[in-house]
Amino acid sequence: MFLKALLLSSSLFASTAPMPPLQSIPAVDLARYIGVWHEIARYPNFFQKGCGQAQAAYRVLEDGGIEVTNTCVTPDGTQKKVVGRAEVVDQGSRAKLRVSFVPAWLRWTGLGWGDYWVVALAADYSYAVVSEPGRKYLWILNREPVMKPEVYAKVLATLKELGFDEAKLIKS
To answer: Do 159 and 50 form a contact (C-beta atoms < 8 A)?
Structure first.
């Protein structure tokens, strides 16, 4: 009985060990990243509740910022759209950005900004994985509306290495 309790307690400690800090990828070529991405899967979040067929379109603005237009379709067929702004935080890698969807007049306060880190990216920019330092949010994005099963399996393996829980993903 003692051995069983010892094994159980050691497995509990192992499962609650802190994850190493999440890292972004070393570099993103924003000119190649800009464009339309289709959401393949994500962690559930309150701001996309009931959204399917989600897309994100990125466009460079004259001031160097990035316009982000997110769209999705609700269960009743209505299209939802929100336009925000992203800014590069790490000029060296250009893989760490912050994004805000609050009105422009409120952004200057610093409220409403969230981290947007590219944590995995195909060499040909055909897919990307986006998260934030706490691993609370996660998106798997693809240039095409459907991701090939072998590519999805590769992405899931990468996510596991990065400390994400595949069971939490919901497919779009």
So the answer is: no
pLDDT, tens digit (0-9, with 9 covering 90-100), for 31-53? 999 999 999 999 999 999 999 99
Superfamily classification of domain 24-164: Calycin beta-barrel core domain (2.40.128.20)
DSSP-based three-state secondary structure for 42 = strand
Per-domain boundaries in the chain: 24-164
pTM for this model (two decimals): 0.88
Amino acid identity, position 123 = A
DSSP assignment of 80-138 equals EEEEEEEEES-TTTS-EEEEE-S-HHHHTTTTTEEEEEEEEE-TTSSEEEEE-TTS--E
